[in-house]
Amino acid sequence: DQQVKQNSPSLSVQEGRISILNCDYTNSMFDYFLWYKKYPAEGPTFLISISSIKDKNEDGRFTVFLNKSAKHLSLHIVPSQPGDSAVYFCAASENNNNDMRFGAGTRLTVKP
Amino acid sequence: EPEVTQTPSHQVTQMGQEVILRCVPISNHLYFYWYRQILGQKVEFLVSFYNNEISEKSEIFDDQFSVERPDGSNFTLKIRSTKLEDSAMYFCASGKGGQTNEKLFFGSGTQLSVL
């Protein structure tokens, strides 16, 4: 089951620069997308989400962009901070469906 | 801030044994979930639970799995006869409900090792 794909298992960025994490999906019925952040020994924590009726949602340093025609979304973190180092999961769901599908995750390392 | 708590944090069991993983969701939440993550793989949906019954389950959630909310606060996942491939980190999550696309709050997980 590869409905949600994060093709980059890892990303390394210098502090202060922009981090761009990418996610692709195959199910055109997905209409809600979320990003979760996971630190070691902790459960995923919600970061930011976007509905399919939007193409951008911004929350502080975090912005999610959605390109429905390409079935692609991305998470931008700017400026990146060392505390942002974590595994980032992209997730997607259909309306009225509790079966949220996760990508495999991208490990972000922000170097001081 | 309220949080989802899971116990135990680690569980080691012999193949064929039954295990019960416990979760205390956030008190005013109505929707409860179990996910798992096999080492090195993605987080996978197992089951969702609402109004004392399963609302959805994945193909992973076969007859050896069951969930229960026995006392209004705990939410448990039982694996009847564990297999080696059940070894994974199991995450419980809860949500307020109403909007199924809401953000979920996850516990820290139970690392299950089947020997």
Provide the descriptors you would attach to this structure in a database record:
heterodimer; A: 112 residues; mainly beta; five-stranded antiparallel beta sheet; 0% helix; 54% strand; globular; B: 115 residues; seven-stranded mixed beta sheet; four-stranded antiparallel beta sheet; 11 strands; 50% strand
How is the biggest beta sheet of chain A arranged? 6 strands, mixed
Radius of gyration of chain B: 13 Å
Binned strand content of chain B: over 45%
Percent of residues in helices of chain A: under 10%
Largest interface, and how many residues on either side?
A-B, 26 and 26 residues
**How do the helices and strands follow one another from N- to C-terminus of chain A?**
EEEEEEEEEEE
Assembly status: heterodimer
Radius of gyration of chain A: 13 Å
The chain-level mean pLDDT of chain B equals 91
Q: Would you tell me the overall average pLDDT of chain A? A: 92
Biggest beta-sheet profile of chain B: 7 strands, mixed
Low-confidence stretches of chain A: none
Count of runs of 4 or more consecutive helical residues of chain B: 0
Strand content of chain A: over 45%
Class of secondary structure makeup of chain B: mainly beta
Number of strands of chain A: 11
- Approximately how much helix is present in the residues of chain B? under 10%
